[in-house]
Structures are given as structure tokens and as C-alpha cells.
Amino acid sequence: MSNIRTNYEKWYECEGYYWGTEPAGFCDELIALCPPSKDKKVLDIGCGEGKDAVYMASKGYSVTAFDVTENGIKKTIRMAKENNVEINAYVDDINTFETNEKFDIVYSTGTIQYLFDENKKPFFDKIEHITKKNGFVFFNVFVDKPFLELPPDWDIEEKMWKSGELFSFFPNWKFHKIDETIFEDNSNGIPHFHCMDTIICEKVI
User: CB 73: neighbour CB atoms within 10 A?
Assistant: First the structure.
């Protein structure tokens, strides 16, 4: 079990789904660029309660997903059963996870900011290793803007990234999208704003 302390373990104890069941729009970008098939393997890093992982599995991908919260993985398995799909879901930590598998797509939304500073380079080295040639990464991360307050549900060990920092870890990849967006959110029932950097890139070497 991870040494990351997170409030989500408790928040995911609720009977319903804390984040709802609708997938992130990021999933539709993934599907448009990488049409689904059972031989395409997806790794969802920090899957939460599983809404994106389940959606991708329902579209026909072979999905592996992990999250640091036991309750999140229980919910992921439950949602997969409710939608009659299979997912390899387990508890693991973004800072220390290991895998011998190779993936066509590595996906993570709302989780990269849990990386400890000393683990950033090892993590991205690992991502390059486990992504197949001509495979894709779909990542986003929250970035610091001095004119935005911290979100009300900002977690204990989340850490804002610098603008553009995420992009710097993919110097030899083909960029399909790099973007920085400020948007309004209503998680935890309190309206607030985020700034997020997003990258979609392809391993071409």
C-alpha cells in the first residue's frame, strides 16, 4: 500500500460514485486518435473509481487500471461488473508502481500531481519504457497560477506543477496536442477554478 496520504480513501466510502459515472472528455480524444480494439492495451494510472477505465473497456480496449485507494479500486471493480466489462484493476502507487507489460496507450487524468519531486524523472523514464513504439500518452496535470486559489478539495499530498513542466519530459516524442486551459469545476459541491496542462504525444523512437 502507498505511503501517500489521501482524503479520497474516505471520500470514496460513499455508496454512490464521488465523481459520477460519466467519463472525462479526454477519453473521446483518445478514441478519436486511437480507435479501439481488443489488442490495444491501455494503462489508466490513478483510475479513481473507474469511470474512464470502464468507459474505455466498454469501447473495446483491453484495460489495466490502478489507484492508490482501496475503496477506489473496489468501486472500479463494481462499476465494471455493472457495465459487463472486464478490467484488470488493482491498488498501486504512481510513485512506486512496476509492470512488465507494454501498453499501446498510457492514460492519466488528475493524478500526475501526486508524483513526489524525486520520482518525476524515474516515472517518466518508466512511461517511456512501458509504452510501445508508436504508442500514445494522454496525460494532464494541474499547474500553479498565482491568481487562482487552491481548490477546496485539494488533497494532502497533491502538488501544483509549473506551467509547461509536463511537456519537458517528452523531448523525443511527437506532440499531437499540448494545451493549457483554465476551467471552472464544481467538485465537492463548491465552484472553483483549475489551470491544467494537457499533453497527447506519440512514441516515435
Answer: 23
The fold adopted by the segment(s) 24-202 is: Rossmann fold (3.40.50)
Answer yes or no: are the C-beta atoms of 59 and 123 closer than 8 Å: no
Round to whole Å and give the CA distance between 55 and 38: 14
E strands present in 49-158: 62-67, 88-91, 103-108, 131-142
Decide: 198 and 177 in contact? Cβ < 8 Å: yes
pTM over 0.85: yes
Residue 199 has which C-alpha cell? 499533453
First-to-last C-alpha distance (Å) of the chain: 34
What one-character DSSP code corresponds to residue 160?
A: P
CB 109 within 8 A of CB 24: yes
Region 81-106: mean pLDDT is 97
* C-alpha cell belonging to residue 71: 475503496
